[in-house]
């Protein structure tokens, strides 16, 4: 007689049931959220002041900078981000601490009971549970990141945030948001609320035009980077200037030229928040400390010693990033070029991508910079591109390419790398791949 299968932990058991509530993983709508939130007593109306963040790239980094600054000022900060890298708990930070399994299980159970088995997506029902927790645990502010798009995203049930933020908009998720930058910008601009100020990153002209048109309809005062405020690097420092004056801050801890813009956006969003809520007027010292302390896993994260990195030959410099679209490729290539200028090493990319992504546009900026691309599958049940397809896309751009069955195998294969010094390695192409790498290396986000 065979042994009975081991029981799932309570939280994993709930996840399995919630995933079965809707035939699609993504089905953009607000109706299901509004229904379940009503049955939960409208927690979305009982939240701390909310800073709502949409955009294609840089949302997580911008939130990380804001959180670091607020916590440096002694504020209790709720944070909601997605997707997670290793554990679902990473998505929900309650007053500075990742939600524990018992608290998460209890909130999910309440949301599940309120839903009464009706169709609802996994992101919607888990967002409802998160809002329930955010409403019941005291905090000074909630940093709320959009999951996908904005207009019909499950987070867009917030009626009056303190500030809306839109990070850079570019092509991504075309199956759900549209095939043009203008169409995608229209979805992102859907988070704008009447009379609520918005802070906007530098945008392509067609995206900014759409955002400005929506803002005009809703009497939204915009602060647009490059027009109403400035953020740039000067003498190794971050300088942010607006109508309230100039802040001369340490260079952001997060690596890459693109993080200057993300940090500047975060600083301006907090300054605007402070104009609306005196309790969030922060001293310059908090902004300084926040720039030094901000962290965000899998965003040009240098991997330390672990079971995975030890598979590489001695001296290999290993970095990890979840970038996966054209704009992400451009930002990463610029960051790696900056690293090359500081310390020259041959660059090797280990890349795994989902089937919904365009590997060619992601890899194009690395032409002339990367010595080799090693394509690998994305672990797990995700619909990844065949490594051969990724390698072929690299070859189109003149980058030498090969395949390996895993990241570990790719790192081991560097033992035969023909060029000295030891290479710099960037593992990228998918947040799912990044999460698997962190898990395998024992580098768990906290």
Automatic annotation (TrEMBL):
Its EC number is 6.3.2.12, 6.3.2.17. Pathway: Cofactor biosynthesis; tetrahydrofolylpolyglutamate biosynthesis; Cofactor biosynthesis; tetrahydrofolate biosynthesis; 7,8-dihydrofolate from 2-amino-4-hydroxy-6-hydroxymethyl-7,8-dihydropteridine diphosphate and 4-aminobenzoate: step 2/2. It catalyses: (6R)-5,10-methylenetetrahydrofolyl-(gamma-L-Glu)(n) + L-glutamate + ATP = (6R)-5,10-methylenetetrahydrofolyl-(gamma-L-Glu)(n+1) + ADP + phosphate + H(+); (6S)-5,6,7,8-tetrahydrofolyl-(gamma-L-Glu)(n) + L-glutamate + ATP = (6S)-5,6,7,8-tetrahydrofolyl-(gamma-L-Glu)(n+1) + ADP + phosphate + H(+); 7,8-dihydropteroate + L-glutamate + ATP = 7,8-dihydrofolate + ADP + phosphate + H(+); 10-formyltetrahydrofolyl-(gamma-L-Glu)(n) + L-glutamate + ATP = 10-formyltetrahydrofolyl-(gamma-L-Glu)(n+1) + ADP + phosphate + H(+). It is an enzyme of class 6 (ligase). It comes from the Bacteria. Residues 314-430 form the Mur ligase C-terminal domain. The keyword Isomerase does not apply. Residues 53-267 form the Mur ligase central domain. Keywords: ATP-binding, Folate biosynthesis, Ligase, Magnesium, Metal-binding, Nucleotide-binding. PROSITE patterns: FOLYLPOLYGLU_SYNT_2 (PS01012). Gene3D superfamilies: Mur ligase, C-terminal domain, Mur-like, catalytic domain. It holds the Pfam family Mur_ligase_C. InterPro entries: Folylpolyglutamate_synth, Folylpolyglutamate_synth_CS, Mur-like_cat_sf, Mur_ligase_C, Mur_ligase_C_dom_sf, Mur_ligase_cen. NCBIfam families: folC (TIGR01499). Belongs to the folylpolyglutamate synthase family. Functions in two distinct reactions of the de novo folate biosynthetic pathway. Catalyzes the addition of a glutamate residue to dihydropteroate (7,8-dihydropteroate or H2Pte) to form dihydrofolate (7,8-dihydrofolate monoglutamate or H2Pte-Glu). Also catalyzes successive additions of L-glutamate to tetrahydrofolate or 10-formyltetrahydrofolate or 5,10-methylenetetrahydrofolate, leading to folylpolyglutamate derivatives. This is Dihydrofolate synthase/folylpolyglutamate synthase. It comes from Ancylobacter radicis.
